[in-house]
Specification:
Helix content: 40-55%
Number of helices: 12
Distance between the termini: 27 Å
Order of helices and strands: EHEHEHHHHEHEHHHHH
Radius of gyration: 21 Å
CATH topology of the largest domain: Rossmann fold
CATH superfamily of the largest domain: HUPs
CATH architecture of the largest domain: 3-Layer(aba) Sandwich
Strand content: 5-15%
Largest sheet: 3 strands, parallel
Shape: globular
Number of domains: 2
Strand order of the largest sheet: 1-2-3
CATH class of the largest domain: Alpha Beta
Bound molecules: adenosine-5'-tetraphosphate
Length: 341
């Protein structure tokens, strides 16, 4: 069976859990904006159904976090006139197609998901079924829009590969050539931003140390302090990127600088190679403050009008549902589920 050519469409999402950090911004949201501004058809979601897989944050916190992430999307440059912006639970097709994909995905595939192993840790027996199954729902999030491209950080590569496997098996099993095989879009200098306290761990919302990450809500003082305290080795910056091999923390600072300055890591080395960290860190802190201060101020302004944020989400959900409910209906028809014509 040959898979038909699908029009190019972008889908991605972020969970409304914790504060958006520099890794989420550089690895995901900044890329979302670039693809929107490059005139791709873009659909961006706040994946609230995924946000209850580990713990339920509480009713008020869920609402607050959803509005805050929407404000962050808008403040970073997503434009509801150019992109479809909405929260996942407002479009029922995600959960409905997600169930079908849970029946397509094989247990062997799910058992290989490293994120489940990382997040469940030693407590796998006590983890929710949702945490285990969420990559199948994520496949539905993407494929409910027939999305062909998915901008994500490096940590999500395996899940996008699973979405491709699910699309392929669905197409084969049901003889339908219906779903595209989505491509991960993982490029740039900061596809895996590491913790400021430990260069072997990715920067993460759930790290217990607030010093491990810079968030979009940090003020200039906290950003400067976190960068000053960021763990590095005692050596100065190498002269070239190759000379930095094996120095995870130092390389992380270079890559973050490159992504913020929108230049290559090689160009950072050409400008700052050989400097001591006491000289390089303040330059980096100034750049981070310059790039993030405007976003933080705009987020705060938007959050003062929650009704407007909700209006943006509901308009987006109406537009998203027009696409996703048609895909769900086609999917039900392919399976032979009896439904209204
Ligand atoms: N450190 C990172 N570097 C680059 N990209 C990253 N992403 C996450 N961390 C980094 C990307 O951000 C998007 C958001 O994904 P998510 O909502 O699934 O968040 P997450 O993976 O749960 O984010 P965290 O911070 O890593 O949270 P916890 O602590 O819960 O695991 C994705 O595109 C992701 O690749």
């Amino acid at each position: 069976m040959t898979t038909p050519k699908f029009p190019r469409r972008v889908f991605s999402g972020i969970q409304p859990t914790g504060d958006l950090h520099l890794g989420n911004y550089l690895g995901a949201v900044k890329r979302f904006v670039e693809m929107q501004d490059a005139a791709w058809e873009t659909v961006y979601c706040i994946v609230d159904l995924h946000a209850i897989t580990v713990t339920w944050p509480g009713r008020d916190e869920m609402t607050r976090a959803t509005r805050e992430l929407t404000a962050a999307y808008l403040a970073c440059g997503l434009d509801p006139d150019k992109s479809i912006l909405f929260n996942q639970s407002a479009v029922s097709a995600h959960a409905e197609i997600g169930w079908i994909f849970s029946c397509v995905a094989r247990l062997g595939w799910m058992n290989r998901m490293t994120q489940f192993k990382d997040k469940a840790g030693k407590n796998a027996e006590r983890s929710s079924l949702g945490l285990y199954a969420y990559p199948a729902l994520q496949a539905a999030d993407i494929l409910a829009y027939h999305a062909t491209h998915v901008p994500v950080g490096e940590d999500q590569r395996q899940h996008i590969e699973l979405a491709r496997d699910i699309a392929q098996k669905f197409n084969l099993d049901y003889g339908a050539a219906y779903f595209p095989l989505p491509e991960p879009v993982i490029d740039g200098a900061a596809t895996r931003v590491m913790s400021l306290r430990d260069g072997t761990k990715k920067m993460s919302k759930s790290d217990p140390s607030d010093q491990s990450r810079i968030t979009l809500k940090d003020d200039a003082d906290s950003i400067a302090k976190k960068i000053r305290k960021a763990r590095t080795d005692p050596e100065p910056l190498g002269e070239t990127l190759e000379a930095m091999e094996g120095r995870a923390e130092a390389l992380n600072l270079v890559r973050i600088y490159a992504a913020l300055a929108e230049i290559s890591p090689e160009a950072v080395m050409a400008e700052h190679g050989g400097k001591s960290f006491s000289d390089f860190k303040p330059v980096r802190a100034d750049l981070a403050v310059e790039k993030l201060a405007g976003i933080t101020a705009e987020m705060n302004r938007l959050l003062s009008d929650p009704a407007e944020i909700d209006r943006v989400l509901m308009n987006g959900a109406d537009r998203a549902a027009e696409i996703a409910l048609k895909v769900r209906k086609d999917t039900y028809d392919i399976l032979g589920f009896v439904s209204r014509p």
